[in-house]
């Protein structure tokens, strides 16, 4: 039996290194894997270090810091809700940056024998 989940905002799959910081704790590195106007999902090994309801700072290279609230954690992931929702243009820029980074892999080299 399939379960239909209705979401308020469309989610976009991305892939970008990120770090998460909480006052009085050391930062944790993770991987941004999903983003929407209102929040994101972050893969992070030490997800148990962040309490539900904690206010954290999400840092992504090339972008302003984003304040967010931890909404859930489990299976190595954190769900964050941004304190201030993103503007559509900022979300578009973030998605493009995340997806372009994946495409910019090292070019294939041809070797003759």
What is this structure's SSE topology?
Layout: E1 12-21, E2 28-35, E3 39-43, E4 55-59, E5 66-74, E6 77-82, H1 88-103
Antiparallel strand pairs: 1-2, 1-4, 2-3, 3-6, 4-5, 5-6
Short synopsis of the structure:
By secondary structure, the protein is mainly beta. The chain has 1 helix and 6 strands; from the N terminus they run E-E-E-E-E-E-H. It has a 6-stranded antiparallel barrel with strand order 1-2-3-6-5-4.
Derived structural class: mainly beta
Unreliable segments of 5+ consecutive residues: none
Q: What's the overall average pLDDT, rounded?
A: 85
Tell me about the largest β-sheet: 6 strands, antiparallel, barrel
Q: How much is the radius of gyration in Å?
A: 16 Å
Task: Explain the overall architecture.
- This protein is mostly beta strands.
- Helices cover 14% and strands 38% of the residues.
- It is built from one helix and six strands.
- It has a six-stranded antiparallel beta barrel with strand order 1-2-3-6-5-4.
- A hairpin with a 6-residue loop joins strand 1 and strand 2 (28-35).
- The longest helix is centred in the C-terminal third of the chain and has 16 residues, at 88-103.
- The mean pLDDT is 85.
């Amino acid at each position: 039996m399939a379960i239909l989940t209705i979401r308020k905002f469309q989610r976009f799959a991305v892939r970008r290194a990120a770090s998460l910081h909480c006052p009085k704790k050391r930062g944790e590195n993770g991987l941004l894997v999903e983003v929407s106007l209102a929040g994101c999902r972050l893969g992070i090994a030490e997800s148990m270090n962040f309490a539900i309801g904690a206010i954290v700072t999400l840092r992504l290279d090339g972008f302003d810091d984003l304040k967010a609230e931890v909404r859930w954690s489990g299976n190595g992931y954190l769900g964050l809700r941004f304190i201030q929702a993103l503007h559509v243009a900022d979300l578009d820029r973030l998605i493009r940056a995340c997806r372009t980074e994946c495409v910019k892999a090292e070019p294939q080299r041809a070797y003759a024998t």
